[in-house]
C-alpha cells in the first residue's frame, strides 16, 4: 500500500537514488560491447547521464557540481600543469567548506530544516573534490599529459571531453569508489575488448548482499527500539552491547552504499583489472571495503586502511605523503576539514589518529615478544579493542554535536538521544 511504499522511500531514499542509474549502466555496457557507441559517444553518454542524474536528484543544487567542474576545466586550459593542483585544491576546498558551514549555520543557528537535495549535493561535491584533486595531482606529477595548445575548438573539445566525463560520470556521482583518471580512460577505451560478456550476475550478487546488509541493519534497529538502554537498571556490559549495535547500524549503512556503487561501476564494465581478465567473476578492481574484511580487523591501523579504501589511498597521496611534519595527524586533520568541521568530527577524527599512532608503537614493541599462543590472545583482545574504539568514533562523528560526546563520557548515558536517533538513523 501507499504507507509501506512511503516508508520504504523515506528509509532508503539515498540507496534508491543510487540504484536509479543501473538500467542505463547496463544499456551503456550493451551498446559499447556491441560496438554501437564510439569512444566519443561513450564519454558523452557517461557525462550527460551524470548531468541528468544530478538534476533529477539534486534539483537546483546540482549547480554546485557544475560550477566546480566548469572552474576546474578553465584552470586546466589556462594554468600551467605544475600549478593546477594548488589552484584546484584551494578553490575546490573553499567552495566545499562554504556549503558545509552554510548547512551548519542553518541547522544550529537558524534552526531551519535543510533540504535533502542540498545534503546530497554537498555529499557529491565531496566526491567531486576527490576526482578533481586526483587529476590535478596527476598533472602536477606529470602522470597525465593534457596538451592545451590546440589550434581549434574541435581539438579542445576532444581534449576536455574525457575530463568532463570523468568528473561528472553518473557511475561515481553519488558514491565512490575513486578511480584514477588514467584508469578511467583506459577502461572507457577497453570496453568490449577484454571484458566478460555480461556483468549482470556479479551486479545481482552485490544487490543481494545489500539486501542482506539492510536486513541485518533492520534487525539491529528493531533490537535498539525494543530494548532501550536504562543507565539505572541496565548493567555495564549491556550498555556496551547496546552502543556497539548502535554504531554498527551506522557502519552497515556505509557498506550498503559502497556495495551499490561498486555494482553500478561493474554494470558499465569497470572493475576488470588486468589480473581478472581471465575469470569473468573477478570484478573487485574497484571497491571501497568489504564488511567482513574490515570489521574483522584486529588493529586500528588495519581498520583505517581498509575503511573506505579508495578514500584512504587518496588521503595518503594528497596529505600523508606530502607532509614532512606529523603526517598522520595532518592526514586525519584534513579528513576532518573535508567531512565538514562538525564538533563531533574533531573528537572522532583526532581520537582515530591518536589510536592509530598508539597502535603502531604498541604492536611494534609487543608483537615480537609474544609466543604463538599469546599472539592469538593478543589478536582477539585487539579486535575487541578496535571494535570499542571504532564504536566511540562512529557515535561522535554521526551525532556531530557536543551532547553526543558528553553522553559517551557519562557511562554510555544515551537515553535522552534514543528517540532522535530512531528518527534520524537512516539519514544518509
Automatic annotation (TrEMBL):
**By its UniProt entry, which InterPro entries does this protein fall under?**
LPLAT_7/PORCN-like, MBOAT_fam
Q: Give GO BP annotations, semicolon-separated.
A: lipid modification
Question: Could you tell me the membrane topology recorded for this protein?
Answer: Multi-pass membrane protein
GO CC, one annotated term: endoplasmic reticulum membrane
Which of UniProt's keywords are assigned here? Acyltransferase, Endoplasmic reticulum, Membrane, Transferase, Transmembrane, Transmembrane helix
The portions of this protein that span the membrane are 14-31, 43-64, 70-95, 116-139, 159-179, 236-254, 326-350, 377-397
* The protein's name: Membrane bound O-acyltransferase domain containing 4
Amino acid at each position: 500500500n501507499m504507507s509501506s511504499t512511503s516508508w520504504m522511500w523515506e528509509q532508503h531514499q539515498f540507496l534508491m537514488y543510487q540504484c536509479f542509474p543501473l538500467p542505463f549502466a547496463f544499456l551503456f555496457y550493451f551498446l559499447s560491447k556491441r560496438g554501437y557507441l564510439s569512444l566519443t559517444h561513450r564519454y558523452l553518454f557517461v557525462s550527460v547521464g551524470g548531468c541528468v542524474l544530478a538534476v533529477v536528484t539534486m534539483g537546483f543544487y546540482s549547480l554546485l557540481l557544475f560550477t566546480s567542474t566548469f572552474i576546474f576545466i578553465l584552470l586546466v586550459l589556462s594554468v600551467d600543469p605544475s600549478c593546477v593542483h594548488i589552484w584546484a585544491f584551494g578553490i575546490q576546498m573553499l567552495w566545499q567548506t562554504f556549503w558545509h558551514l552554510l548547512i551548519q549555520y542553518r541547522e544550529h543557528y537558524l534552526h531551519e530544516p535543510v533540504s535533502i537535495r542540498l545534503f546530497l549535493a554537498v555529499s557529491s561535491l565531496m566526491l567531486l573534490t576527490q576526482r578533481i584533486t586526483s587529476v590535478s595531482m596527476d598533472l602536477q606529477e606529470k602522470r597525465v599529459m593534457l596538451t592545451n595548445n590546440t589550434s581549434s575548438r574541435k581539438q579542445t573539445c576532444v581534449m576536455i571531453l574525457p575530463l568532463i566525463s570523468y568528473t561528472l560520470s553518473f557511475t561515481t556521482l553519488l558514491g565512490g569508489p575513486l578511480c584514477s583518471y588514467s584508469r578511467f580512460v583506459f577502461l572507457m577505451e577497453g570496453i568490449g575488448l577484454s571484458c566478460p560478456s555480461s556483468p549482470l550476475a556479479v551486479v545481482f550478487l552485490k544487490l543481494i548482499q545489500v539486501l542482506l546488509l539492510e536486513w541485518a541493519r533492520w534487525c539491529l534497529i528493531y533490537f535498539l527500539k525494543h530494548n532501550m538502554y536504562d543507565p539505572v537498571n541496565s548493567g555495564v556490559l549491556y550498555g556496551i552491547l547496546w552502543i556497539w549495535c548502535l554504531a554498527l547500524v551506522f557502519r552497515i549503512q556505509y557498506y550498503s552504499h559502497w556495495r551499490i556503487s561498486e555494482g553500478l561501476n561493474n554494470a558499465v564494465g569497470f572493475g576488470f583489472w588486468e589480473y581478472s581478465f581471465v575469470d569473468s567473476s573477478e570484478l573487485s578492481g574497484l571497491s571501497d571495503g568489504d564488511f567482513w574484511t574490515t570489521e574483522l580487523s584486529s588493529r586500528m591501523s588495519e581498520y583505517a586502511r581498509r575503511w573506505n579504501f579508495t578514500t584512504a589511498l587518496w588521503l595518503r597521496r594528497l596529505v600523508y605523503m606530502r607532509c614532512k611534519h606529523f603526517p598522520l595527524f595532518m592526514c586525519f586533520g584534513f579528513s576532518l576539514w573535508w567531512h565538514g568541521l562538525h564538533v563531533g568530527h574533531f573528537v572522532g577524527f583526532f581520537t582515530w589518529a591518536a589510536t592509530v599512532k598508539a597502535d603502531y608503537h604498541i604492536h611494534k614493541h609487543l608483537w615480537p615478544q609474544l609466543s604463538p599462543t599469546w599472539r592469538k590472545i593478543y589478536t582477539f583482545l585487539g579486535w575487541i579493542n578496535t571494535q570499542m574504539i571504532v564504536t566511540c568514533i562512529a557515535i561522535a562523528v554521526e551525532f556531530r554535536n557536543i551532547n553526543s560526546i558528553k553522553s559517551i563520557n557519562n557511562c554510555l548515558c544515551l537515553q535522552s538521544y534514543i528517540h532522535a536517533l530512531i528518527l534520524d538513523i537512516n539519514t544518509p
